[in-house]
Amino acid sequence: MPLYNEYNDADLAALIASGDQLAFTVLVERYTSVIYGHLVSYLKNGQEAEDITQDIFITLWKNRQQLPGILNLSAYLSATTRNRANNAFRNKLNTLAEPPADTIESVLVTPSDHLEYRELYNVLMSGIAELPPRRKQVFTMSRITGLSYDEIAVSLGISRSAVKQHIIEAMLFLRKHLKSRMEMAVPIFIIFFSAK
Question: How many beta carbons lie within 10 A of that of residue 83, not counting itself?
Answer without folding.
Answer: 11
